[in-house]
Design brief:
Alpha-Beta Plaits, alpha+beta, elongated, 17 strands, 4-stranded antiparallel beta sheet, 7 helices, 24% helix
């Protein structure tokens, strides 16, 4: 808040329209109107002001409007807001208000996805992508050895870079838990492929402090107040 108002880019992000950076780009392109006039970069929005983009009125959410969901994504569902894509996550959930995913989970994987209409928390989580822990259960096509575990924990070269160190907890001779602090494209599958193994099952069970728990596959739930409080504390560190 600045002078009982909020910066225009933050206001647009809080409406779930786009990120602050993208909002700044739209403002610089003279595509944003504030009270009927072309808005300037750094403009302040106060109660009663009208913000428009492309002729559409933009309204930032209040605390009562904000939605935070944990969803157990089935295999075959695509993490995209593009409704033209078959089996997209938005149509599958069919939530009555506009929401979007924070991060992605590839089509062949299942497990925890967070959905929201809060652009500000989206930006915070994405900016800290390489700091936030995400935990998975991974099953391979054949038994792995100690050399595989050590390589996964130290980092594996994929996509022309070394991955960050990981934590591996064996569950059986083909299955293990894995904690990542990265989100490279199909990272776990690529890491295992590089070491000569193929992933046959991949499930995300935790994002930061939010856990999948016993949430049935294909179902969602609202995040609890304690979960949200702890999540916001982690993001503000």
């Amino acid at each position: 808040m600045e002078n009982n108002g909020v910066r225009l880019n933050k206001y647009i992000a809080a409406a779930g329209y786009c990120s602050r950076r993208q909002a700044d780009r739209l403002i610089c392109q003279n595509k944003v109107l504030l009270n009927g006039e072309i808005a300037e970069l750094g403009a302040i929005v106060v109660p009663g002001d009208k913000v428009e983009i492309g002729g559409k009125s933009i309204t930032a959410q209040t605390a009562d409007d904000l939605i935070y969901l944990a969803f157990n994504k089935p295999q075959g569902i695509v993490c995209t807001a593009n409704l033209k894509v078959k089996n997209n996550i938005i149509d599958f959930i069919d939530y009555p208000q506009r929401i979007f995913t924070i991060g992605r989970l590839d089509k062949d994987s299942e497990g925890l996805i967070i959905l929201t209409n809060d652009g500000s928390i989206f930006n915070k989580i994405v900016r800290a992508e390489h700091e936030n822990e995400k935990e998975y259960i991974v099953e391979l096509n054949r038994p792995y050895n100690q050399s595989f575990v050590e390589s996964m924990e130290k980092g594996v070269r994929i996509l022309d870079q070394m991955t960050n160190p990981t934590q591996v907890k064996p569950l059986s001779n083909t299955k293990f838990k894995l904690i990542l602090t990265q989100g490279l494209n199909r990272q776990i599958r690529r890491m295992c492929d590089a070491l000569g193994y193929r992933v046959t099952f991949l499930q995300r069970i935790r994002i930061m402090n939010i856990t999948l728990g016993k949430l049935p596959i294909g179902m969602y739930r609202k995040l609890s107040e304690p979960e949200l409080r702890d999540l916001f504390e982690l993001l503000d560190k």
